[in-house]
Specification:
- It contains 21 helices and 53 strands.
- By secondary structure, it is an alpha/beta fold.
- It has 5 domains: 217 residues, Spore Coat Polysaccharide Biosynthesis Protein SpsA, Chain A; 125 residues, Hexapeptide repeat proteins (UDP N-Acetylglucosamine Acyltransferase, domain 1), CATH 2.160.10.10; 116 residues, Alpha-D-Glucose-1,6-Bisphosphate, Chain A, domain 3, CATH 3.40.120; 201 residues, Alpha-D-Glucose-1,6-Bisphosphate, Chain A, domain 3 (3-Layer(aba) Sandwich); 94 residues, TATA-Binding Protein, CATH 3.30.310.50.
- The protein has an 8-stranded mixed sheet.
- The longest helix is centred in the last third of the chain and has 28 residues.
- GO terms for molecular function: intramolecular phosphotransferase activity; nucleotidyltransferase activity; structural constituent of carboxysome shell.
- This is Mannose-1-phosphate guanylyltransferase.
- Keywords: Cytoplasm, Initiation factor, Nucleotidyltransferase, Phosphoprotein, Protein biosynthesis, Repeat, Transferase.
Length: 841
């Protein structure tokens, strides 16, 4: 069987180690990743290998030659002009593949039993077999769901937290029949997971998954690179380690001698021709390649040093990586997580702080204390974006320095000379961070339209009317009083897609920031008509005649938080009597108890004034809490049902888009009134896109996120919600208390349950595997429903915390309580078992 070894990867997430080295050539225990793969292939009798190359192909060819030295026959195909993707590169050599063949990724370390996988493939006589593995955190991989016979039923590339329905992932190893490549056209970039496999699934071509319990690790980041070294040293993966095992788990290469006073802590690996000084300490996890020199008295703990590294006397190195020919002088301190690129020089008594990365060829002056990476930025975070933006503790995680780098990374993904609007709430810390963001944008040649302090719905509306590439808004986090939230949106006002967020993360973590010369630095302008334009758009989509004919009295509580009191001015213009409470800015966001106190006061004012309704506006103008004409607070789920009822009553036959977490009351209402319900994922971006891309949607969102009226703009807007609510009440001619009596009664509970990250994927798989397929809905999380009723249970992993959210919905209170208790116990027990099992490993 011929093997296609895809070795064209540039390994951007492994930079600076891969700035001048292809990813498959990165050494693991002193052998390139690709060499470990060839050893595995040869051990299973697979010696006919075609390598596909793109990035620095000569480095690979010069090392492996014709493959005879490694016991295989090697040929090469180089993608000269552009990378063709995993499937495109194989399609490019389809003429060389007349028989079933094996595709292997050159980016991973594994000891999978390929002979068993091939037998599985032949037994099922399938055109496609994917080799699958189970991992504790599947978010960074393509997840695959198989049935009891091993046939693949669903897969998803790099899912969000809510889309993790199994912990079984694609390893990038496939057994394929040549005929399946006919589904692709040649000469274009194509991916197996994103392009070919969905086509085959749609065409009902049988695809099977061989699930291996062997070791598999995609060396996709610097953290996993260090982890795979440790796993090899501790025998968790079976690799051929060069050298003589002079004592248990201590391997020493040719012409390397150990001084009598050396202190060794296994496991360690020493390459050929190493020179170690007197009193050297080498602690567990240390891997020294060939020709490494370590001076007297130096201490290396968990250090990976490539070929030709020099370390001077009395230096202290902790869990760091040194690329080829790095020179570390005397009395140097390199802290945990430091990565040093090829041929860099670190002067005497210099100190590099935790996580610092140096690109190749950098020189650190003697005595320097380096706290940041060269060229720009640190890499302490693995992900930047959460559920709806970049969040962090104000002035601790979200600092001015961080904001400058974040904005520069974002701007580097845009065309130079384009414009971005920047807005914020009125808090001082938001102003500080917004100014830093504007500096970062301008430094990359982007023009800034500074809207200053303004409600977020107005900023989203402005994005549609101004000629901008996108926008950034800074505000206090709506759910966490000590945090800031930085949200990015496109030229339509829609939050960025996950693909765009990944582009920004890639630019940030690669520290690949575009800089411009002096004359191309961006400019700043301050548009002064954004509020007026929003008010005009606001008026355009309201039936103002209803306002004049039915003057309403409402009470609006701004809870000391919202930027700009725009709504009362608009409503007063139409004859409404709007009473405003707490419109001044509070220095810090209110806590839950303070907001509840203000809600009670709001209810008292509503009844005292005999107002039609009261509202408390939050989340910088996005959300609202409703108080009816009796002064009673309307719950979130009831508010969503109420808005659905009013919209479908006044817009017959229309569609309402709601997240999967919304109660089934909306379906009952839609059935009664002849409307339609569109369920989406809970991610705000998905809600925004659904409202824009599905015709007939007149309302989107829920009370927990805010409501969207797509005719005005694509974002959540509490102000327009209030005005539309007044309009619909005037049209129906009933008070809120009467309408609430007409809403269906649904028992609905939500509970957040602690669940370690390592258990989330396996929990989702367990739930999917233990339920009939007809009962499952996998839009977001795992939703288990009764086909004959509107009863359901939803288990949704949290995107940023070690939690899962349990939602239970039913018209039967007893059933609701029973399922809430049963699934809470089931999740807690499963999480404990998985955590214990992981600890034993």
């Amino acid at each position: 069987m011929r093997v296609v070894l895809m070795a064209g990867g540039s390994g951007t997430r492994l930079r600076p180690l891969t700035c001048d080295l292809p990813k498959p050539m990165v050494p693991v225990v002193n052998r390139p990743i690709a060499e470990h793969i060839l050893n595995l292939l040869r051990s299973h009798g697979l010696d006919d290998v075609v390598m596909t190359l793109h990035y620095l192909p000569d480095v690979v060819r010069d090392y492996f030659g014709d493959g005879s030295e490694f016991g295989v026959h090697l040929s090469y195909v180089v993608e000269e002009e552009q990378p063709l993707g995993t499937a495109g590169s194989v399609k490019n050599i389809a003429h060389l593949l007349a028989d079933p063949f094996l595709v292997v990724s050159g980016d991973s370390i594994t000891d999978v039993n390929l002979s068993e996988a091939i037998r599985f493939h032949h037994q099922h006589r399938a055109p496609v077999t994917l080799i699958l593995a189970r991992v504790s955190n599947p978010k960074e991989f393509g997840i695959v769901f198989t049935d009891e016979e091993g046939r693949i039923r669903r897969f998803l590339e790099k899912p969000s937290a809510g889309e993790v329905f199994t912990d079984t992932v694609n390893t990038g190893m496939y057994l394929l029949s040549p005929t399946v490549m006919d589904y692709l056209s040649g000469g274009t970039e194509r991916d197996f997971s994103r392009d070919l496999f969905p086509l085959l699934l749609q065409a009902d071509v049988p695809m099977y998954g061989y699930i291996t319990d062997a070791y598999w690790c995609d060396v996709g980041s610097l953290q996993t690179y260090q982890q795979v070294q440790r796993d090899a040293l501790y025998g968790r993966v079976q690799l051929d380690i060069q050298g003589t095992e002079v004592q248990p788990r201590v391997w020493v290469g040719r012409n390397t001698t150990l001084p009598q006073d050396i202190q060794l802590e296994d496991p360690i690996v020493l390459g050929n021709n190493c020179r170690l000084g007197a009193g050297v300490t080498l602690a567990a996890g240390t891997v020294l390649s060939d020709n490494v020199i370590v001076g007297n008295g130096s201490q290396l703990r968990g250090v990976v040093a490539w070929n030709g590294v020099f370390v001077g006397d009395d230096s202290h190195l902790e869990h760091c990586i040194l690329a080829r020919h790095v020179h570390v002088d005397r009395h140097v301190t390199l802290n945990e997580g430091v990565i040093v690129g090829t041929r860099s020089v670190i002067g005497e008594e210099a100190s590099l702080s935790q996580g610092v990365r140096l690109w190749p060829g950098k020189r650190i002056e003697p005595g320097a204390i380096v706290n940041e990476s060269l060229i720009w930025g640190t890499t302490g975070q693995r992900y930047l974006f959460g559920q709806r933006g970049v969040a962090g503790v104000a002035n601790v995680d979200i600092t001015p320095e961080f904001a400058v780098r974040l904005a520069a990374a974002y701007a580097s993904t845009l065309e130079p000379g384009t414009s971005v609007l920047v807005s914020r709430d009125q808090r001082s810390v938001s102003r500080m961070v917004a100014h830093a963001l504007m500096s970062g944008l301008m430094s990359v040649g982007i023009h800034v339209l500074n809207l200053e302090a303004i409600a977020l719905p107005i900023a989203r509306f402005a994005a549609q009317t101004l000629s901008v590439s996108g926008g950034i808004h800074v505000r206090a986090h709506p759910d966490r009083a000590d945090q800031l939230l930085i949200e990015f949106f496109d030229h339509k006002g829609i939050n960025l897609s996950r693909a765009r967020e990944r582009q920004i993360e890639t630019a940030y973590f690669r520290e690949d920031i575009r800089r411009v010369i002096l004359r191309d630095v961006g400019t700043m302008a301050q548009p002064n008509n954004s509020v007026a334009a929003y008010a005009q758009g606001f008026e355009k989509w309201l039936n103002t005649k209803l306002f004049y004919g039915n003057p309403a009295k409402i009470v609006i509580d701004y809870a000391y938080a919202v930027s700009g009191v725009v709504l009362p001015q608009i409503l007063n213009k139409f004859g409404c009597d709007a009473v405003v409470l707490n419109a001044t800015l509070h220095p810090t966001p209110l806590n839950i108890l303070e907001r509840q106190r203000l809600l009670r006061e709001l209810g008292q004012v509503v009844t005292a004034l005999s107002a039609s309704l009261g509202v408390q506006v939050s989340a910088n103008g996005e959300r609202l809490t409703l108080v009816d004409n009796s002064g009673a607070v309307v719950s979130d789920q009831e508010l969503t049902a109420l808005m659905t009822y009013l919209v479908l009553l006044t817009h017959p036959g229309s569609t309402v888009a709601v997240p999967v977490t919304t109660s089934s009351a909306v379906e009952t209402i839609a059935q009664q009134l002849g409307g339609h319900i569109l369920r989406t994922r809970t991610n705000p971006t998905d809600l925004m896109e659904a409202c824009q891309h599905h015709s007939g949607v007149v309302l989107g969102g829920a009370a927990e996120t805010g409501f969207i009226f797509p005719q005005l703009h694509p974002g959540f807007d509490a102000m327009f919600t209030i005005a539309t609510l007044i309009e619909m009440l005037a049209l129906i001619g009933k008070p809120l208390t009467a309408i609430r009596q007409e809403l269906p009664k649904v028992h609905y509970h939500h509970r957040a349950i602690r669940c370690p990250w390592i258990a989330k994927g396996s929990l989702m798989r367990h739930l999917v595997e233990t339920q009939p397929r007809a009962h499952l809905n996998l839009i977001d999380g795992v939703k288990i429903g009764d086909p004959n009723t509107n009863n359901w249970i939803l288990v949704l992993p949290d995107a940023s915390e070690p939690l899962v959210h349990l939602y239970v919905n039913s018209h039967d209170a007893a059933w609701n309580e029973q399922m809430l208790h049963r699934y809470t116990h089931r999740i807690e027990q499963f999480a404990r078992l998985e955590t214990v099992a992981d600890a034993k490993i």
